[in-house]
Structures are given as structure tokens and as C-alpha cells.
Amino acid sequence: MDLKEKVRTFITTNFYVADPSSLKDDQSLLEAGIVDSTGVLEVITFIEGELGVTVDDAEMVPENLDAVNNIVKFVQKKQGK
């Protein structure tokens, strides 16, 4: 399973997504009501625990965590890819 699939699967299985196939990779998870402030912490726990990337306090911003694509780009950058 590639990184984007892992992130999508995590989002669609851990948060309420009425129609997972309608979730766009660049869609704001916060604006769509999929992830709330507590959910962001769950996303960070997933990134650190499952993907092996540390998320520093300064990196806890929407640009890194608010869409599937943002999470993928952030993780790849932290992994040096």
C-alpha cells in the first residue's frame, strides 16, 4: 500500500466519511467536518506511530495536516523523499 493509500485509509476508517470515494485528496478535512481539533491530534498520532515521522509543534498547521495531499507531501518531505 502506498503512502497516499495509507493516509486515505486511515482518514476514511477513523473518521466519519459518508462516501469515501467522494473524498478528494486536496479537500480540506477541517472545512468538510471530517476532522476536528481533537481529530488533528489523532492524525498526528497516526503520522508519528504508523509512518515514523515526528511532527514538531511548529509543523502542526493546516498546510501540513488539512488534506490527504498535504499529509502525504509533509511526510515525504520529513522522510527526505
Layout of secondary structure:
Blueprint: H1 3-14, H2 37-50, H3 62-65, H4 68-78
Helix pairs in contact: 1-4
What this model shows, in words?
By secondary structure, this protein is mostly helical. It has one domain (3-16, 25-78): ACP-like (Non-ribosomal Peptide Synthetase Peptidyl Carrier Protein, Chain A, Orthogonal Bundle), CATH 1.10.1200.10. It is built from 4 helices and no strands. It has helices spanning 3-14, 37-50, 62-65, 68-78. Helix 1 (3-14) crosses helix 4 (68-78). The radius of gyration is 12 Å and the shape is globular. The model has no long low-confidence stretch (mean pLDDT 95).
Please give a handful of descriptors for the protein shown.
single chain; 81 residues; mainly alpha; Non-ribosomal Peptide Synthetase Peptidyl Carrier Protein, Chain A; 51% helix; globular
